[in-house]
From TrEMBL:
It comes from Sphingomonas psychrotolerans. This is beta-N-acetylhexosaminidase. Belongs to the glycosyl hydrolase 20 family. The active site is at E328. Residues 159-497 form the Glycoside hydrolase family 20 catalytic domain. One of its GO terms (biological process) is glycosaminoglycan metabolic process.
């Protein structure tokens, strides 16, 4: 008998794998369980589950019956076996046991007589059943009997809040896609789904007393890139749809926390009911991402309106928490309203932040009268934290520390680490999102218990969640790509003991979970396991030497990289990568990592070493100009789906650079340009926008050399290579090209592409910069 934790694993049969140039040891036979249970005791023997096996439950036990139903659904899809539920003992038995303490705790025993899950609570039975589902799948024997090794597992979560947030506001998601996420949250024991249901760009929750919230507020006009606006987009969920979703999630151990965002992010509300805004004007539902000025009315009329909305919210969502936002509420409208200023004075408050705290306390007290608890983003701390409020800390961890030390409950969700709309790699095939790259390893190493919290207040840390904001996630496919597999990392950091977490062990257990998700029809990003290529030296050095040196690596230390140079797809028998490859230009490298069983961990990626390819840089390979930094990766249009071009942009300065361009080799160039919508609500940050003097009506594309060096050293003068007037955005296509010749220079020089279009015009970006060795 042997106890197995993360580091305490079977000492026999270790397999050594190469990942890049690193040697990684992995256990040959780890249990395929994610998140890692608290205690695993391996024993001798096994039990076989075959098609038609019975899941036994106690008569009249609705929780056990539900767990058996969910177990059967997962095993059918993930392993291809049909399980039947029946009262009494079965090959798998789910039973109540008061000695297993905690609603989410369970005990699982596998021996020669069968598989037995014991728990005192419904969620414990469900999570034990999900561990059984993982033990049954997957391997290469889909549809065949499974031999489950003898084991005793004692398990319970570290934190009670293990969550994800979906944002169906910025891009409306069909209700069916939320069901799919719920299913796969349950598979890794996540238990909280936060739905961001209102914002400037839409109102998604049906309020029967105020139908215009969805009739008007549920639809927006996409932003224009210069031509005619497109048809309205949007949608909403009926209360009946949401009640059904709540019930479905509850059967899978998941509580849904709805968010009605107030007092800011309220433009859709004010568009529907201007009388609940501050000044009575009617804006359009916003199509701008970011921060907008519209707040709701904090007076008696507005407060009464919100309470009526909350009446309908609590009737649909029976969970303890109701989220009321409180984030990014710029107070300019309140500052400029004599009526609101009179209210602040009448209440004896200091300023607008205290008015927000007063308002939050009003709603917290109202929710408490209905047996509910208010939670909000950490901005609700700014005017003094109301006694009734809990805090969701997103601006780092300070809000969490401050709130916990004031005896308020806290959920950690700090940006950028747990913002799942952040990119997962710097490869050009990544979809749109925030350019703050948060890898699988970054999420896994996050510790939800922040430093600085007094030991006595640690109990106030409820847990953590990942947020998938949807400004750039237009489809369910894109949402899933950003959530999975990082959801498994969130599950493990919130469930498993801190001292037992180990990234290498996690990767070995994650691999089968990824296969389960894919068998369930879920899109799972392979960014952590995909081969990336790094050209050693500059393109110019490679071209001059007629020799290319390329290093290969994966983010995650898992698998053996194998490659080909003959145009064929790599297999498990292809050469293993050991050191950077030295090649003549013209060879295409294809590579993928393979696990111990010889299966690819990600689809193969390629590297074109031709001279033409070495001279070409896409948007994702350009860098920000010295006075700015790329912050977003955006699609061609706001509603673009999976296959649309994407562009790395700095919202505050439309300038990008081609570093170390070999101007002694290249003689001419072509720059492919895209015109994008300038749909960003920057609020007070708009002061940081950098304008440029335009000498033609719509501005120019100015290409200059030595621009980065000149920004660092004022004695160096940039050289203007070319300047092209930009066309009228009302009549020109959204994508076009400029070509020209390059001056003869001695070697590598940076090239900058600066757009000088007025700030009132659309936004421009370089899609691709192609240098050529011949003249035009």
């Amino acid at each position: 008998m042997q106890v197995v934790g993360v580091r305490q694993v079977r000492h026999l049969g270790w397999t050594v794998l190469l990942c890049g140039s690193a040697v990684v040891a992995q256990p040959a036979d780890p249990l395929p369980l994610t998140p890692l249970p608290q205690s695993i005791v391996r024993e001798t023997g096994s039990f076989t589950i075959s098609d038609g096996a019975i899941v036994g439950v106690v008569p009249g036990d609705a929780g056990a019956t539900a767990a058996a139903r969910v177990l059967a659904a997962h095993v059918k899809i993930e392993r291809g076996l049909t399980l039947a539920s029946r009262v009494g003992k079965g090959a798998i038995t789910l039973v109540r046991d008061a000695s297993v303490q905690g609603d989410e705790a369970y005990r699982l025993v596998v021996n020669g007589q069968g598989i037995r899950v014991s728990a005192s609570g419904n969620r414990g039975l469900l999570y034990g059943a999900m561990t059984v589902a993982q033990l049954l799948s997957p391997d290469r024997g889909f549809g065949k009997p499974v031999k489950v090794p003898a084991v005793t597992i004692e398990d319970a979560p570290r934190f009670g809040w293990r969550g994800l947030m979906l944002d169906p506001v910025r891009h409306f998601q069909p209700i069916e896609s939320i069901y799919a996420v719920v299913d796969q949250m349950a598979s890794v024991k996540l238990n909280t789904l936060h739905l961001h249901l209102t914002d400037d760009q839409g109102w998604r929750f049906e309020v029967k007393r105020y139908p215009k919230l969805t009739e008007i507020g549920g639809w927006r006009t996409p932003p224009s890139t210069g031509g005619a606006p497109g048809a309205k987009v949007g949608g909403f969920y009926t209360q009946e749809q949401l009640k059904a979703l709540v019930a479905y999630a509850a059967e899978r151990g998941i509580t849904i926390v709805p968010e009605i965002d107030l007092p800011g992010h309220a433009q859709a509300l004010v568009a529907a009911y201007p009388e609940f805004g501050v000044f009575g004007d009617r804006p359009e539902v916003s199509h701008d991402w970011g921060v907008n000025p519209y707040l709701f009315d904090p007076g008696p009329k507005g407060v009464a309106f919100v309470k009526e909305v909350l009446d309908e919210v609590v009737a649909v969502f029976p969970g303890s928490y109701i989220h009321l936002g409180g984030d990014e509420a710029v107070k300019d409208q309140w500052e400029r309203s004599p009526r609101v200023q009179a209210q602040i004075k009448a209440l004896g408050l200091k300023d607008e932040n205290q008015l927000q705290s007063w308002m939050i306390d009003e709603f917290g007290t109202y929710l408490a009268s209905k047996g509910r608890r208010l939670i909000g983003w950490d901005e609700i701390l700014e005017g003094g934290l109301p006694p009734s409020a809990s805090v969701m800390s997103w601006r780092g961890e300070k809000g969490a520390v401050d709130a916990a030390n004031q005896n308020h409950d806290v959920v950690l969700t700090p940006a950028p680490t747990l913002y799942l709309d952040s990119l997962q790699s710097d490869r050009s095939d990544e979809p749109p999102g925030r350019l703050s790259i948060q890898t699988l390893a970054d999420v896994y190493k996050y510790e939800p218990m922040p430093a600085g919290i007094d030991a006595a207040n640690a109990k106030h840390i409820l847990g953590a969640q990942g947020n998938a904001w949807s400004e750039y996630l237009a489809t369910p496919y894109q949402v899933q790509h950003m959530i999975f597999p990082r959801a498994a990392a969130i599950a493990e950091i919130t469930w498993s003991a801190k001292e037992k977490r180990d990234f290498t062990s996690f990767l070995g257990r994650l691999d089968p979970q990824i296969q389960r998700w894919r068998r369930s029809g879920v899109e799972v990003a392979d960014s952590a396991f995909a081969v990336g290529y790094h050209l050693e030296g500059t393109p110019g050095e490679a071209l001059r030497a007629n020799r290319v040196r390329v290093a290969l690596a994966t983010q995650a230390p898992y698998g053996t990289i194998r490659y080909t140079l003959d145009g064929k797809v790599p297999t498990a028998k292809s050469p293993a990568y050991k050191a950077p490859l030295s090649l003549k230009p013209g060879v295409t490298i294809q590579a993928a990592a393979f696990d111990a069983a010889g299966n690819t961990t990600a689809r193969p990626r390629s590297f074109d070493s031709s001279r033409a390819a070495l001279l070409t840089k896409t948007s994702s390979e350009l860098v920000a100009c010295p006075r700015g930094a790329f912050g977003l990766r955006v699609p061609l249009t706001s509603e673009a789906t999976e296959n649309a071009p994407v562009f790395n942009v700095n919202l505050f300065d439309t300038c990008s650079a081609y570093p170390a361009a070999p101007l002694d080799v290249a003689k001419s160039f072509t720059v492919d340009v895209a015109r994008l919508a300038r749909h960003y609500g920057l609020a007070h940050e708009a002061r940081a926008l950098r304008s440029h003097f335009n000498v033609t009506t719509h501005g120019e594309l100015v290409i200059s050399a030595r621009c980065i060096a000149a920004a660092k050293d004022k004695t160096i003068k940039p050289i203007v290579v070319a300047s092209f007037p930009l066309p009228d955005p009302k009549t020109a296509p959204t994508q076009f090209s400029f070509s020209g010749t390059l001056p003869a220079m001695a070697g590598d020089e940076d090239l900058c592409f600066q757009f000088t279009s007025p700030l009132s015009d659309p936004f421009y970006a370089v899609e691709r910069a192609t240098l050529r060795e011949s003249a035009k």
